[in-house]
Task: structure prediction
Amino acid sequence: MVVIGVINQEFLHHNANRSYPFAERATKTPNIGAQEAAVPNNFLVAAKIVVNATPEQVNVANFYISRLTVYHGGVNFIINYRGNEGDIKVGTVTAIDLGTHDHLNITVPIIALNNWKGLSGHVTVGTFEQVRSMLGDYSFDLPATQLDVDVVSFSSAAVTSITVIENGAAHAPIYGDIQIVAGENIKIDESYDNETQSTELRISRVINDVIERRRCIQTINMVPPDVDGNIAIVSHSPCLQVENDVNASTVVLTETCCDPCCGCEELSVIKQGIQNLLQANNEVRLYQQKLEQQLVQLASTFSVTGI
Result:
């Protein structure tokens, strides 16, 4: 009796004989170099890229390896994405070659570049056996190293809980269905930002609300506040001083020109000056009286002598 055995290859070993994780039509040939420098099929045997995006934002057929550097001890390559605004580096991978024949199917993580849409993932290096002879630095274009569309998948970042922090103290995390409810004099607007491609919940105060008008100052002497709700009180005269008492929530206006300008020392000098003036006036009056007496005597002398 003859027994016929059926041997099925495991997934990674099977990939060593086909183009995957590259697209089947990918040439794997560098921009500059001969055909023998093409990336061997058994080098990469699996890959997984996860992006925090939607099919409208990211085309899964536009990922490719733009650069491959082979050196003694390992390899490094760059993953690019071709978008509407050109090519951008989105991830990098470094794999270490231990130089042994049993060093097979090694999975290494993808390190995201430029914080590109929360990219994460990994690649699996089947074997370094053939790439060891390709020491050098190689660059590729999209048709050469396009990754298969099954390599890329979409994932939305999930919020597992919400924590309320009040006055520096954190409340217990909130789970399950959560509703955001607008309180008194608060409104919540929902809008879509085309630039960031995300939905925004904007929390703001209610303008011209009846309660708000009753609680707040609308104008001072018909002057409205600025965008921050402040009205500045400024003095343009040296006689008017403006002082703020923050603790008492008071603005004090002081008129300095109506206050007495002289103290005891100044009044004493003025008083002494007036007394000196009165004394001088008395002396002048006495001199005048003496002069009048002398004139009377002179007149009587002239009358006696007949002059």
